[in-house]
Design brief:
Blueprint: E1 3-6, E2 11-14, E3 16-19, H1 32-44, E4 49-51, H2 60-69, E5 78-83, E6 85-89, E7 107-111, H3 115-129, E8 136-140, H4 146-162, E9 168-173, H5 177-185, E10 190-194, H6 208-215, E11 218-222, E12 238-239, E13 242-243, H7 246-261, H8 266-272, E14 280-286, H9 290-299, H10 306-314
Length: about 325
């Protein structure tokens, strides 16, 4: 599978990466064997970039991903995790469904973008992963902690990179404005933009993606299904981790009608779309089973008729100036 180097950091990520929130119990529980099989299927498909975070299942995602990767040669894969939420033990019982994860509430999250918090979070992640290093560390959702993130957390990451503890640094968010500031005001290698550059919405195209291209930085596209809506636009589908508004659901249904008229499933168009912009180095696909991984890889294999994008534009479902991918993705799986 094609790999692209993140910025100037020398860290290569495969075109498709595995986002490991789902194996941490996002929305619904996932068994140990099923989680292991998911990572195994990704590896067998040629995926060598894996992304996780302490937030995902209160550390369960990190533990499962680490267990699945520890038997692999460490130099053969790239791993990213995140800092900004420190996990603290909690013995009050209950579950974590209020935060979106079907796991026991064994810990509580505490926001911490201090330098010490960054270092503690990374140390804890390495313990859960059972690995001696991660390649890319991202500041996770600093929306309401921007000044501390820039003043304390980012310099701590820069120091860790200069010491060789990590190879690349960046930020991961569900917005593009602050990510653009990270590109202009710091020396990050990459940013992870979730949900803001998708077939459904292209807010990141206004400033984030052009800024990344001009600076020689990389963008990792996450949330390309807008948390489920573009995977299966049906009643009850989710958008930004909540019930999809009716207007967006209707729009996604219309998109599906167009793509399927060209023999292309909507989820295939959604997975392919971000590759149209040169700043996008990798697209993360979240999967909770081996079957979902196999399906995702199949959706980016083979040709996608160029007319599908033309028809989406003709029906007002895709703006005219938005770049689209080549009919056949270079180096696509298979």
């Amino acid at each position: 599978m094609r790999a692209t180097v993140l910025g100037a950091g020398g860290v290569p990520v495969t075109a498709l990466g595995l986002g490991a929130a789902a194996i941490g119990g996002l929305y619904e529980a996932v068994g140990e064997d099923e989680a292991a099989a998911t990572v195994e299927a990704a590896w067998d498909a040629g995926i060598r970039y894996f992304d996780t975070a302490p937030h995902y299942g209160l550390g369960l995602s990190e533990r499962r991903l680490g267990a699945a990767l520890r038997t692999r040669p460490r130099e053969d894969f790239v791993l990213s995790t995140k800092v900004g939420r420190v996990l603290e033990p909690h013995d009050g019982g209950g579950d974590d469904r209020a935060n979106g994860f079907a796991v026991p509430a064994t810990h509580r999250r505490r926001w911490d973008f201090s330098a010490d918090g960054v270092r503690r979070s990374l140390e804890d992640s390495l313990t859960r992963l059972g690995l001696d290093r991660v390649d890319l560390v991202l500041l996770h959702d600093p929306d309401d902690h921007g000044e501390q993130a820039f003043r304390e957390a980012y310099p701590a990451l820069e120091e860790l990179r200069s010491q060789g503890v990590v190879r690349a640094i960046g930020a991961g968010m569900n917005q593009s404005r602050m990510l653009t500031r990270f590109l202009t005001d710091t020396d990050v290698d990459a940013v992870l933009c979730a949900g803001r550059y998708t077939l459904l919405e292209q807010g990141a195209l206004e400033t984030l993606l052009p800024t990344a291209s001009a600076a020689g930085k990389s963008v990792i596209a996450g949330g390309v299904f807008n948390s489920g809506l573009l995977a299966d636009p049906a009643p009850g589908a989710t958008y930004d981790y909540a019930a999809a508004p009716s207007d967006l659901l209707d729009r996604a249904v219309r998109m599906r009608e167009v793509t399927e008229a060209h023999g292309l499933p909507l989820r295939a168009a959604a997975l392919r779309f971000p590759f149209g912009h040169p700043a996008v180095a990798s697209v993360l696909v979240g999967a909770r089973s081996a079957a979902e991984v196999v399906d995702a890889v199949a959706q980016v294999r083979g040709p996608a008729p160029g007319a599908v994008w033309d028809d989406l534009r003709a029906q007002g479902l895709l703006p005219g100036g938005v770049p689209v991918p080549e009919p056949v993705l270079e180096g696509s799986p298979g």
